[in-house]
Amino acid sequence: MRRLLDALYDGAAWLAALFMVALLIAVLLSILGRQFHFNIAGIDAYAGYLMAAAGFLALAHTLKRGEHIRVTLLINALRGGARKGLEVWSLAMAALLALLFAFYSCRLVWQSHAFHDISTSNDATPLWIPQLAMAVGTVIFAIAFLDELVLELRGRRVQAASGEALRNE
User: Is residue 163 part of a domain?
Assistant: First the structure.
């Protein structure tokens, strides 16, 4: 199960990276279009879709690598059961919020599909298509938080510490 979850997080990160490369290409095409006087309809809208997809798909991988911003002032002052209790409570609340975020993201995709919502930009893209990346990203993010919660409850959670704080101090 561990390998499957790690593969899920890594796969989402690779997909996010692919969307980032596609975003770069879209921005370059937009710049070239302005310089050489040609227009690709909807390229700005597609760049926005790609940026959102990259951000949402990278959430779980970023969480699992300890790169999300985390306020540790209080938790570092605690020891033993109090610290574990606060960790469990924090992870449970984060998992709940992530599940709600995933639920409403999936619901938004469903509603956009059911109501035939389209982009107001000149590309007229059905909105459920770019929203799908958001829904998938938030579902994987919720799974990652549930994973962290279960690991904490079982005493197997490893704190992935970002080296960023060490480089800034």
Answer: no
**Among 84, 83, 64, 76, residue whose Cα is nearest residue 145:** 64
Determine, yes or no, domain membership for 166.
no
* Cα first-last separation, the chain: 38
- What are 91-149's pLDDT values in tens digits? 999 999 999 999 999 999 999 999 999 998 888 899 999 999 999 999 999 999 999 99
Other residues' Cβ atoms within 10 Å of the Cβ of residue 114: 9
Dist. CA 85–CA 142, nearest whole Å: 20
Number of domains in the chain: 1
| 66: in domain | yes
| pLDDT at 55 exceeding the cut of 80 | yes
Q: Write down the pTM of the prediction.
A: 0.87
Which has the higher per-residue pLDDT, 156 or 154? Answer: 154
Question: Which residue range forms the structural domain that includes residue 116?
Answer: 2-158
Report d(CA 140, CA 137) in Å as an integer: 5
Distance CA 101, CA 155 (A): 27
The SS3 assignment for 122 reads coil
Is 169 domain-assigned?
no
